[in-house]
Each structure stands twice: as structure tokens, then as C-alpha cells.
Amino acid sequence: MTQEHHSAQRREETQAHEQEATAAAGQDAGVDDLLDEIDGVLEQNAEEFVRGFIQKGGQ
Amino acid sequence: MGLETEYGVLAPSMPGANATMLSAQVINAYAATVREARGKIAGTRWDYADESPLNDARGFTQPRDQADPSQLTDVEPELDAEQVALAGGDVTIGDTLYEAGPYDHEVLMNMVLGNGARLYVDHAHPEYSSPETTNPFDAVLWDQAGDHVALAAVRRIESLAGVPDVHLYKNNTDNKSVSYGAHENYLMPRSVPFDSIAAGLIPFFATRQVICASGRVGRGMLGSYPGFQVSARADFFEAQIGLETTIRRPIINTRDEPHAHWEKYRRLHVIIGDANLGQISTLLRTGTTALVLSMIEAGTAPGIELRDPVAALQAISHDPTLTAKVELVDGRMLTALEVQWIYAEAAARHSGATDATDEATVEIQRRWEETLHQLETDVFSASSTVDWVAKYKLMTSYAQRHCLDFTDPRIAAMDLQWADIRPEKGLYHRLAARGLIETLYSPAQIAHAAANPPEDTRAYFRGRVLSQYPEHVVAASWDSVSFTVPGGRKLERIATLEPLRGTKALVGELLDQELSIREFIATLRS
Q1: N or C: which end of chain B has fewer CB atoms below 10 A?
Q2: Domain end: B440, B475, B502, which one?
Q3: CB < 8 Å to B416, chain A
Q4: pLDDT tens-digit readout, B34-55
């Protein structure tokens, strides 16, 4: 394998890593945003909500 | 095929409110929206003449006196004086239903909808039973239409001043010992022996959960053991085969109530599935089952048998990593995904051999295999299509961010709130709004299906006459519609025992003529 080939391959690898990192960061931002929203819509008193969720029999 | 949903029902400001009353309020609220839109509704009585919940597909009938009272679904439920008195503490509800008048004076326990569905009070839950459809894609659409109907009822109640809000949940358990169902119904030729149906389905049903269940936090019927599990229903099953649906629940339910020509058809009543909010999960649930049933009809289903199906069902559900192995009677130890692959590959061969190359079959096969690939490569990669994975991924991220474990009440609250049908509160709906969930149908298509029946089954006849002649339809069931005709001396009961008749092709033109009810019935009879 020639020197040029090596560096070309390294460049590609680096680019690929950068792309992955960007994608992951983008995803994290999305997840953060989503989890913020979940915090906002989740029942305020989770424990009371869960305790009060009582159903009668069904099929 | 058709799908039933029993919704969880809750009035947060009235803990302990009578569940039957709340359910009736939901039905009556929807009736009020229909009345407002159309001017009148058919307060249609359900016709119980052809119901036979105690007939067992294995060839016998359970004596009535030995049946659990909850199995007697062939009699009209009534809000008796005792129930009304019990609910007496809920002054507002009592007033709303009986005096304040927004719902008329009569309490409806049952409605037949213009899309051919049945909306009614089943035990202590509002239930939507979808109209009959001919294929899994339509089954998904008219199941989603049920959520649209349920949401309309919730909104109606919200809009009434002084009436406490009622919330509905498309889930299967309160995590405190109670479970309620999301049943599937498949029409099959009576000639297929029931034994072969049961044998072919049991290993499939014990493993199907990995591609389409909805997930649950907590294990055991009481939810008393910690941890996330794949299926909401698995822990409530105790038998392989049986007639009951409310106690000792079986993987294969033998209720033999075809709602159609008895000699020609059976209706396979499937009680093991989880209610799905996700459209693709519903498609996978019904589509793969339909493929397995066609193999069973043709005698090409895989001949595999689990050593202990109920234990396998639960072991698989309790392992969201999907690596648990279950034992076959031949001694092999397989994961749920491996069992599903055996079925998926057999289905591909079967479709090839029978030249089943229609678009729907091809897409369901493709999605089945793709889902299995995703689940075996990286479980979370199926989060846009498989409900339990979407829920588990969200909870996992949330738990990591706040350093919680799965015993935290906030995780338990997420489990319940996942299934809230209100788009602004339901966690499933919050994910879907962000485009994180793949869908098949737009809100406009779903709204259309909430008002209009499928065109290629008898549901078309039922839905259209309900919309067109509401004041003349006095009773209906899956296999009949009864009319009153002015001046007539008796009810005109039109049997609809053939599910593939009453279609748009057969009665669409007649209905479009907008005849008087007398002319309409006379033409039908001629």
C-alpha cells in the first residue's frame, strides 16, 4: 500500500468519524429536546398518578 | 378481520368513580357529538340473538351455571338501580347523565357507528369494536379510527362546564392485577380443524410479542417485581387453550361465536395481543397472524411445539434483550427471534408456492423480516415501528438523564401515560408528533374512517343504513340489522350472515338512490 493510499484512507476514516460524531451530537440534541418535553408533559405527581390509576376487570 | 379495544378509563378528579358509569359517559358523549353533526342518531339496541359466548370450538358448550358471570356477554348490560346508587356519590356524573340533559334522558350503553363499528360499555371499560375489514391494512386504519372516536368523546366531555374530565388509555393493565383486552378476530373456513389452528398458533403467539407488543413496567400480574418487559399481557395468561377471556386466560381462546354462517365459518377470537397505538405494530400483529393462518389453512405451518408455552411466553416477555431461549419438545433451545424466523421463512415459501404476490402480502412479509433483522442486530433500531421498543428506548433515555432505575414512580407514570390517547399528553403521540414513529395513515384518512365504513364487507351496509336511516334502525348486531317501517306491523330484520356481502358493489347504488325506508326494505326483500 502506497503512502498516498494510506493518507487517502486516513482522510476517509477521519471524515467518517467526524460525520458519525456530528450525527451523534445531532441525535443527542434531539433526545435532550425530547426529554425536556417529556419532563413538561409528565404528570406532576407521578407517584399519586400511578397509585390512582385503578381499573376494574376486563376481558 | 376486526379489532377490539377496551380502553382504560380514568377521571382523575374523582378517584373511585364507578367505571361503568364513566364508560357510559364516554359512549353518551360520543353520541352527543354524532347527534350534533347529524341531527339525530340511532340509539341502536344491540341484537343478542346470535351471541353464543359459551360455545367452545372444541365441540361442546359450557353450562351456563358453571360460567363466570363475566363470560355472559350475550345479555344486555344495564345500569341497574344499585349501580346508579353506587355512583350516587359522583353527583356530577349522575346529574350529567340523568338531569342536566346534554345527553338526552336515556343512557346509552351501546352505539353502532356510521363506520360500521360498535361502541359500547363492556364490563367496566368503553370498547370500540372495529368494522369488519378484508385485510390487515384496513384493519389498522379502522382500529386507528377507534382512537379518533374515543378522543372525540374525551374532547366532548372536556367541553362540558362542570363535568370532570375523563381520560382514556389504549393499554392493557393498571399494573395492579387488572387486565383488559385488545382482541383480534379472523374469519376462517369452518373446515380447518381447530386442533391444527391451536398447534400452529401457540408457538407463534408465544413469540409474536417481540415484533408488536407494547411493553410494560413491572412483572407479575400485580406488577410487584421490578423491570421492563416486552408484553403488557403476557403475565395475565395461565393456560394454553380455553374458553374464558376474563379469568384463567388462555393463549388460544376457544369461543365459538362466528357471527356468520356457522357451517361455513369460524371466527378465531385472539385475546393474547397488546393494544397498539403504533400503526406499524398493529400491521405487524395482524398481518403476520393472517399469513400464519393461511399457512395453517393450507397445512404448511411449521411443525414446531414448545415444551411449556405459557412459561415461554413469560420468559420471552421478561427479557427485552431478546436473548432468552425457550425449549421445544424436540429439545432444541431457541430464542423468540429464531422461532419467528422459522415462521417468517415458512410464510415466504408458502407465498411463493401459492403465488401470493399481491402488494399487501409482499409488504407485510418484507416488514416482518426487516423487523426481525433489526431486533437481532440492535433492538433499539426498531424504535420507529415496534411499540415496546419505542417505549423502552424513551424510558431508558429518560432514566439515564435523571439517574433513575425502573422502579421509580416516574418510569411507572411514563408507562401509563404512554397510552393516553390525547395527543398533547400521550407519550406515544409526543414521539409521533416529532416524526420518530413511522405511520401508514394521515389524520385526515383516519377521520374519514371514523365516519365511513370499509366498502368491501357487510360493515358497509351496516354503516350506511345507520347514517342514512338512523330513526328506523332499532337494533343491530354483526350479523343483522333490524328496521321499523312506518305502518309496518313488525320489525324488519335483515340478516347479514355473509361477511363478504352488503358491500358497496352490491348495495352502494341502492343506498345512493335515497329511497324511503319502506321502498328500501321492499327492494332489499325483492
Answers
A1: C
A2: B440
A3: 49-50, 53
A4: 888 876 665 667 888 888 888 8
